[in-house]
Design a protein that fits this description.
The complex is a heterodimer of chains A (729) and B (168). Chain A is an alpha+beta fold and 729 residues long. Among the domains of chain A are: 170 residues, Aldehyde Oxidoreductase, domain 4 (2-Layer Sandwich), CATH 3.30.365; 235 residues, Aldehyde oxidase/xanthine dehydrogenase, molybdopterin binding domain (Aldehyde Oxidoreductase, domain 4, 2-Layer Sandwich). Helices cover 25% and strands 25% of the residues of chain A. In chain A, the strands form 7 sheets. Chain A has a 7-stranded mixed sheet with strand order 4-5-2-14-11-12-13, sandwiched between helices. In chain A, strands 7, 8, 9, 16, 17 and 18 form a 6-stranded mixed sheet that branches. In chain A, strands 1-27-21-22-23 form a 5-stranded mixed sheet. The termini of chain A are far apart. Chain B contains 5 helices and 5 strands. Chain B has 2 domains: 75 residues, Ubiquitin-like (UB roll) (Roll); 83 residues, DNA polymerase, domain 1 (Orthogonal Bundle), CATH 1.10.150. Chain B is α+β, with helices and mostly antiparallel strands and 168 residues long. Chain B starts with a strand and ends with a helix. A 5-stranded mixed sheet of chain B has the order 2-1-5-3-4, covered by helices on one side. Chain B is globular. The chains are: A alpha+beta (729), B alpha+beta (168).
Chain lengths: 729, 168
């Protein structure tokens, strides 16, 4: 019944290339599209259950002290109020991705301003909101706590670092050297759907309709938080309104809803307000990064240094993995990489789209631009000269790497050869400049399961608790199954987002498509084998197309072969030796043209192009959209996005979408994306790698580098807002 | 509080808490959850509906202010099997990813084309007297009240151009 596959050796058979249906890779529309565009796809807080009550979280007004609900009885007596929940099981902050157990639970002590410490439950949303505003939280016996990473206590993360060769000496001997410090601020994922859960008990069994990315972990996290067995928990998340890391781990609203539903005996909905999304979900840590680059006269790197400072709440192990791709992107014998974690009482730091590379490669790429300028070498050529033959630290081979092709092809497509000299091209009051940066992101395969059922009528159903958070899972899993079983796309149904179904990898770390896709592939292989057995032919001799099997110069329909039977197989993929045997990563290059206003310092991105290589592309349309999304996150990072923290108590000062500026339509040009043809046999039997995060891993660097080319101004403190640019004009 | 209005062509009589926003009336009381709550502040546009043909953020408006109004949320523009040209164009051009901002984008785009047809200028219209053209710049400017964190903006522009071509 279950077919297990462990990724221990490269999949050189490339079976998908030999299939006949022609679905994999095709730019097909999302099958759930008509539901999304008509408002009939159902998100977490959209189930109007009978007798539904509404809960509103209440936050701690400071970062220290014992929590006291000063007027609890008065609030409980307000019109419509059903309960005021102040329970030790409430989560202090969300779980980190793949935690699989509850995070710190504490409603009695304040740790950061914004921490949810109580829930008001009422008959209606209006009653709950009003009563929650009336609930007065007092903090007793608090002491001042560190909120500034620059002055807080530091915990070195030595397992993430490296000291190879002698970087100091390489810097001294270098013909061209760069020693610069950059800063990136905290970011918020800010998905358009605020985090929400509806909890409903049936006896001792809990059903949670939630907005989550990784259901099998979330189920265990919720059970652990409540102190019940995971078998009693079912989570449903068929549609998720964006995540970008912020919905990886179980969050406070789910536990609060579950406790409230138990206490009131009614289903309870708890949706975060937009300010709460900013204050209580996950932030990307701010970073301070000192980069040192030592190069010879031709720009060849002899040394690379990256020393990063990040932060998190006490008790959290996550430290923004800034160094992740610096370990292997460029050559250089002498390498010193280090990561320090400061303990601060700001909201929890965790995964925001491409943790690590989004900020680590962006800053490295800015420093590379500075080196190119110092050495008088074209920035693209500088990258080309420093592509290492093998992993420069481990000596391992790369699984596949079309990095040089991405640089060359991207430069050609963009028209890079027309790049102006620094601060030389002006159109009216606008300075025009080009910038580029490399893209790199580690690639991971995760354990994942899916069931595929071939029905007697020759239609198929794919079932897994995998999520589609806008990433295209509904599309690609159907394409893989259709390809393997020789079925038109509309003959395959894909059911997702239910923990009663086989547990998948979840959506995160760019691993969802390759991992869950492989589980579907493995299940389909087993079905193919069974079909072949029925026909008495070798599976490899079987051609399946349009619901028919072709073998030995004969043709039979699937219905004829199945003779009224159904075939159901579960595919189970496990990562194996290929994860360690080679260096697996995705690569690319960004090219940008900006116009910078000489009077105001305003930057407009006029053109942007990305060339990317991420193994086999499973759906050219949704893959391109993922790249666009990443690159546009990069525009926000480069120009506008910054969580601003109050110096005194560490609270988020800009906790809404009018003050935390994500890009809007007018900020974004008609970006072009090139997906390079690639097969990575080491990554998965699909030869696919992750693509959901590659688009942001350096993109902001290309924009800031373009600002320098346009104006001669180097902004080393992200984002490059008008004030910082104009100061140098 | 009693309010009588037309929703998707049907007259509805509602007796709700006067604090109920038009958005919450649709989502919590009428089962029309196509209009999304992204911020409840009028900052994101996910709740955009058509009121008497014009685009409005339903979260910024109380239900009781709409006595006699004609409200068309996304469900009234088209349903699977009978999508409007704008809805169909969003599917074909992948003008979305997660889909949460999408109903608001589509309501907004539908009304925006009408505004251009009526000659309304925007911030980027060079000549206030001339009929505005449906350029990428005009579309991007006029659609900037609808945020999309998945950042499907280039595809949204393509979808609107396609829909405009079909309906022209």
């Amino acid at each position: 019944m279950t077919e297990q596959f462990k990724m221990d050796a490269p999949a050189t058979d490339r079976r998908l290339d030999g299939m006949a249906q022609g679905l994999v890779g095709a730019p097909l529309d999302r099958p759930e599209g008509p539901l999304k565009v008509s408002g009939t796809a159902t998100y977490a807080d959209e189930y109007r259950l009978e007798n539904l009550a509404h809960g509103m979280l209440v936050r701690a007004p400071g970062n220290s002290g014992r929590v006291r609900l000063a007027n609890r009885d008065a609030v409980a007596a307000m019109p419509g109020v059903l309960a005021v929940i102040h329970d030790p099981r409430l989560l202090r902050n969300p779980a980190q991705g793949t935690a699989n157990k509850a995070p710190v639970q504490d409603a009695n002590e304040a740790h950061y301003l914004g921490q949810p410490v109580a829930l008001v439950v009422a008959e209606s949303f209006e009653h709950a909101r009003h009563a929650a505003h009336a609930l007065k939280i007092e903090l007793e016996g608090g002491t001042p706590r560190p909120v500034d990473p620059e002055t807080a206590a530091i915990e070195p993360q030595s397992s993430k670092g490296l000291d190879q060769g002698d970087l100091d000496r390489a810097m001294t001997e270098a013909v061209h050297a760069v020693d610069v410090t950059y800063r990136t601020p905290s970011h918020s994922s800010a998905p358009m759907e605020p985090h929400a859960s509806i909890a409903q008990w049936d006896g001792e069994n809990l059903t949670l309709r939630g907005s989550y990315q990784m259901l099998k972990y979330n189920r265990n996290e919720l059970a652990d938080a409540l102190g019940i067995h995971p078998d009693r928990v079912r989570i449903l998340a068929p549609y998720v309104g964006g995540g970008f890391g912020s919905k990886l781990g179980l969050a406070p609203e789910a536990v609060a809803a579950a406790i409230a539903a138990k206490e009131t005996g009614r289903p309870v909905s708890v949706a975060l307000t937009r300010p709460q999304v900013f204050e209580t979900t996950m932030r990307r840590s701010e970073t301070r990064q000192r980069i040192r680059l030592a190069a010879d006269a031709e720009g060849r790197l002899a040394g690379i240094g990256q020393a990063a400072l990040v932060s998190n709440l006490p008790g959290e192990v996550f430290a923004e993995p800034v160094l992740q791709a610096t370990h292997f992107l460029y050559a250089g014998e002498n390498r010193r990489l280090s990561l320090d974690l400061a303990r601060v009482h700001r909201l929890c730091a965790g995964s925001v789209r491409a943790p690590g590379e989004a900020v680590g490669i962006t800053v490295l790429e800015c420093a590379m631009d500075e080196l190119a300028e110092a050495a008088g070498i074209d920035p693209v050529e500088l990258r080309r000269r420093n592509i290492p033959e093998k992993d420069p630290e481990s000596g391992k081979e790369f699984s596949s790497r079309r990095f040089r092709e991405a640089l060359d092809s991207g430069a050609e497509a963009f028209g890079w050869s027309d790049r102006p000299a620094t601060r030389s091209r002006r159109e009216g009051e606008w300075w025009i400049g080009y910038g580029m940066a490399s893209a790199a992101r580690v690639n991971v395969l995760m354990e994942s399961r899916a069931r595929v059922t071939l029905a007697p009528d020759g239609s198929a159903k794919v079932e897994t608790d995998m999520t589609d958070i806008g990433t295209g899972t509904y599309a690609i899993l159907g394409q893989i199954a259709g390809e393997m079983l020789g079925l038109p796309r509309d003959r395959v149904e894909v059911v997702l987002g239910d923990t009663d179904l086989p547990p998948a990898s979840g959506s995160g770390g760019s691993w969802g498509a390759a991992s869950s896709g492989t589980s579907v592939y493995v299940a389909c292989q087993a079905i193919r084998a069974q079909l072949a057995e029925r026909l008495g032919v070798a599976e490899t001799e079987l051609t399946l197309k349009d619901g028919q099997a072709v073998f030995d110069n004969r043709t039979e329909t699937l219905a004829e072969i199945l003779k009224g039977d159904e075939i159901a197989k579960e595919g189970h993929v496990l990562p194996g030796d290929t994860s360690k045997a080679v260096r697996q990563a995705t690569f690319g290059a960004y090219f940008v043209e900006v116009a910078v206003n000489g009077v105001t310092g305003e930057t407009r991105v006029r053109r942007m192009h990305g060339s990317f290589a991420a193994g086999r592309i499973l759906n050219a349309k949704t893959a391109r959209s993922q790249c666009l999304g990443g690159m546009i996150f990069g525009i926000g990072m480069a120009l506008t996005e910054e969580l601003a923290f109050d110096d005194r108590d560490g609270h988020v000062a800009n906790h809404n979408l009018a003050e935390y500026h994500i890009p809007v339509n007018a900020d974004v040009p008609q970006i072009t994306v090139e997906l390079l043809e690639e097969r990575d046999d080491w990554a998965s039997p699909l030869q696919a790698k992750g693509i959901g995060e590659l688009g942001i891993c350096g993109a902001a660097g290309a924009i800031v580098n373009a600002i320098h080319n346009a104006t001669g101004v180097r902004v080393r403190d992200f984002p490059a807002t008008l004030d910082k640019v104009i100061a140098g004009l | 509080m009693q309010t009588s209005l037309t929703i998707n062509g049907e007259t509805r009589q509602l007796d709700l808490d006067p604090r109920t926003s038009l958005l919450d009336a649709l989502r919590h009381h009428l089962g029309l959850t196509g209009s999304k709550k992204g911020c409840d502040h009028g900052q994101c546009g996910a709740c955009t509906v058509l009121i008497n043909g014009r685009r409005v953020n339903a979260c910024l408006s109380l239900l009781c202010m709409h006595e006699g109004d004609e409200v068309v949320p996304i469900e009234g523009l088209g349903q699977p099997g009978a999508l409007s040209p704008m809805q169909q164009a969003f599917v074909e051009k992948d003008g979305y990813q997660c889909g949460y901002c999408t109903p608001g984008q589509i309501c907004s785009a539908t009304a925006m084309l009408e505004e251009i047809a009526q000659g309304w200028p925007s911030h980027v219209t060079a000549d206030l007297e001339a009929r505005p053209e449906l350029t990428t710049e005009e579309i991007s400017e006029r659609m900037s009240g609808n945020l999309c964190r998945c950042s499907a903006y280039p595809n949204i522009v393509d979808a609107i151009r396609k829909a405009a071509g079909e309906t022209a």
